[in-house]
Design a protein that fits this description.
The protein is mostly helical and about 140 residues long. The protein has helices at about 1-10, 10-20, 55-70, 75-80, 95-110, 125-135, and strands at about 40, 45, 50, 115-120. The strands form two sheets. Strands 1-4 form a two-stranded antiparallel ribbon.
């Protein structure tokens, strides 16, 4: 996919979209999930399906409890760092903005019960891929 994108000078997502549009199937390897990006904190891929990550879900509950008890996002981030818990991206130090995003997402998620995927700046293309993965 990357080689095709480089050859014609466009994004891999555009190549993928147009292959899909014309009904051209893409060979699925054991780890090929159909998207690039990262799952939201609290979820993991298991056999190609998005499933809750139990230990991360427990951490989200603990973050909520700390926040309900009046702790700031910075205090929660410092607590996670002091417990030697790594972020989803493997960083050792937590940032208050990450904690805020996780808690904000976990509140929104309750409405439909489906996880969100983090795709950096991929915009609507990410939404199409998200719905394709989760449905």
């Amino acid at each position: 996919m990357g080689q095709i994108a480089r050859e014609i000078g466009c994004a891999r997502s555009s190549v993928m979209k147009h292959l899909d549009l014309f009904g051209i199937s893409i060979r699925q390897g054991p780890l090929r999930t159909g998207f690039t990006g990262q799952l939201a904190f609290g979820y993991k891929l298991e056999r190609g399906k998005v499933v809750p990550h139990r230990s991360e879900q427990k951490l989200i509950l603990e973050m909520r409890r700390l926040r309900t008890n009046g702790n700031t996002y910075r205090e929660i981030a410092d607590w996670l760092t002091s417990q030697n818990i790594r972020t989803k991206t493997g960083l050792e130090k937590w940032d208050r903005k990450v904690v805020h995003s996780i808690l904000k997402r976990s509140r929104r998620e309750g409405a439909n019960g489906k996880p969100e995927l983090f795709f950096g700046g991929f915009g609507c293309q990410a939404l199409k891929l998200t719905s394709r993965l989760i449905t």
